[in-house]
Amino acid sequence: MADCYGHAKAEVSNKMVTGLTIEARKESKERYLKEFRDATHASAREDMLQELRQNELNELKTKARAEVLKN
Predict the structure, then answer these.
(1) How far is residue 55's CA from residue 52's CA, in Å, rounded to a whole number?
(2) Rounded to a whole number, what is the distance in angstroms from the first to the last CA of the chain?
(3) Residue 45 and residue 58: Cα distance in Å, rounded?
(4) SS3 of residue 38 by DSSP
(5) What string of DSSP letters covers 2-67?
(6) CA gyration radius, the chain
(7) Does the pTM exceed 0.70?
(8) What pLDDT shows up at residue 1?
(9) Per-residue confidence in pLDDT tens, the chain, 71 aa
(10) Distance of CA 56 to the CA centre of its chain
(11) Euclidean distance between CA atoms 55 and 49, whole angstroms
């Protein structure tokens, strides 16, 4: 009887550890995905800012050329 109890106790303990491991993996995956999304959004924002800067630079170049051609 004691052997069955010990075995059952160990099995429950293993299931608890397995459950905790699965839960930890889910949390780790969610944390990784959040960090990835944040990095992706930051990268996209940086790309947009860079594009805006490039557009402004192109406009300045166009205005400068127009001024040179005018004179």
Answers:
(1) 5
(2) 104
(3) 20
(4) helix
(5) HHHHHHHHHHHHHHHHHHHHHHHHHHHHHHHHHHHHHHHHHHHHHHHHHHHHHHHHHHHHHHHHHH
(6) 30
(7) no
(8) 47
(9) 445 555 556 666 666 666 667 777 888 888 888 888 888 888 888 888 999 999 999 999 999 988 888 87
(10) 30
(11) 10
Task: Match 């944040």 to its residue by tokens.
Answer: 38
Alpha-carbon distance values, 60 to 9, 46, 56, 69 (Å): 76, 21, 6, 14
Token pair 């050329």: residue? 65
Q: Is 51 exposed, middle or buried (0-12, 13-18, 19+ CB in 10 A)?
A: exposed
Token reading at 25: 């993996």
Residues with Cβ within 8 Å of 53's Cβ and at least 6 positions away in sequence, in order, are none
Residue carrying structure tokens 């993996």: 25
